[in-house]
Every structure is written in C-alpha cells, then in structure tokens.
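Hi P.,

Sorry for the delay on this. The queue was packed all week, but I finally got your sequence through. Input first:
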Amino acid sequence: MTTPCTSRPRIAVVGSLNIDLVLQVRHAPGPGETVLADALHLLPGGKGGNQAVACARQGAQVQMFGRIGDDAHGRILRARLDADGIDHSGVQTDPNADTGMAAITVDAAAQNRIVVVPGANGRFMLDTDALRASLRQAHCLVMQFEIPLPQVLAAAGQAQAAGCPVLLNPSPMAPLPALQALPGALWPLVDTLVVNEVEAAALAGSAVATPADAAVAAQTLCALGPDRVVVTLGAAGAVAADAAGCRHHPGQMVAAVDTTAAGDTFLGALAVALAQQQALDAAVRQGIRAATLCVLQAGAQPSIPTRTAVAQSPQPPDWIRL
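Then the structure:
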C-alpha cells in the first residue's frame, strides 16, 4: 500500500506528449473562411506532458510514461521534461511514427480550438514492469484519454494492485459510439475523476450549464465507481462531489489571455494537494488558484505556474454547499 505524503509526493503520469502549433488569431475561422494569424508558436504540450509539468511545478517528483517519435519534436519534448526535473525514462521512442502534434487557434477572447494528430501517442504500449516499479513508490497515478484506452485501463489495474490512487481526466472526450463502449470496469478503479462541463454532460447523460447541473452530473458519475468527482466550469470555478455531498467552488474573475492549459494546470495542482493528504475542498481551491494564474499567460506549458507563484496568489472565494 502506498504511504500518503505530506511533503514532496511522487506522481506517475501515463499519457500523451505533443508539440503544439499555436496560432494567435483575432477570431477563429468559420467554414470556408481564411484568417490571418497575429503570431505562431511551436511549444511543448500534450495533456500528459502538461499535467506532468503542472505536478512538477507544484513540487512533486514526477515520472512520465508516454511515446514520442524519433524526430526533432520528440527531442524538444524530452528536453522540456528534463528542464522541469521530470524522469522520462518511461518515455518510449517510436522509430515508425512522428511525435504527436496539436494545432491550436487562440482567439482574442482567449478561447481555444484544438485539433490533435496522435502520432506516436496512438501507438503507446504500457511497459508493465517499469510502471509497476514506479507505482510501488508513487502517491498518485495521473492519466488522460490521449493514449489508447486499453492502455489506460491496464495502467489503472496496475495502480489498484499496487494500492496507488488513480486520478483520471477522461479528455479528450470520445465520440458517442466510443463513449458508450467505455468499459464499466474502468470507473471503480478511479479514486478521483476530473472532468470539464462538456465531459461531465457526455458521461452523465445530462446537460451541464450551471453549478447545480454539475452537482447532479457529479453524483451520477460517483455512482459509477469513483470516490470523488470534480467538475471544472472554467471561469465559474468547479464543483466537488464525494461522500460528504457537493460543493461549488467559485472561480476568480481575471482577464484571460489563453485558456489552453488551464484544465491541466488545475489537475496538476489538485493531484499534488491530494497526494499530500489535503482535503478535497482544499485541493480544489489550490487547483483554481493555479489555473487562474495559467490563463494570464499564452501557451500551454510556458503558462503553467510554480508552487511559489500559486502560494503568493489570492485565495478564491469560499465554497458553497449545493
């Protein structure tokens, strides 16, 4: 059984690594429309990579498991993981596939639209021995849906066998037929499920437009097996649900520049706080503070704040019981 950590936790991340091609535009193009970009940036990203960096910058010791191509983009991603002190010995190099890439437009209202080419991420195969060794020391396993679902399920099973809590972010959300085919065996393996309003609505089968809606969806998702569910609501904050009920944590009003990695930043801060045995509500507040700082800067990983920056940021409003 993994021993909870009150100082610097160890977190294993199994997930995607992408290069982000970020286009800053005044407005996103409509069908058949061509627009001029104000700027173009090539930046490290991928939900797995972003969440690993977010955990590391909040003070965790992180080991990353993923897959990249044998190309310049893959080398950029390894260098970025190195720079944040992340162990990337579990990152595989695929000689037959390119590193994954995401094309991202960010408009003047800071809204993003993302198209992902999975590349090597789609060929990720779990190294069970390496993951098992990591999980014996880890305080949390973090995963997403940007790698093949069978590998996500297998890693969750390994974590349960090792007594390591699983934090799952089922993003990006699959089309409805694939969504309906998600194995029911996955949910009981998840300790903390983190979804945005779109993902919550798709998984729970009910609209999520308000915090009250999010609470209904969260309770539905808890009934599937996860001990705790957090529904993020962008500027409106987040709703947390567990055996004690549902609470709405309001967001902090700021002039957002780019929301690209806000969810990943929230998740990283949440994961580290939970691994340090903080209560769910305290962990959600930490996530909101980190995500608020994230949206004030452009880019995915460049915008993810450090633990020191989060500690110096304002506290969000008190939570409200729903």
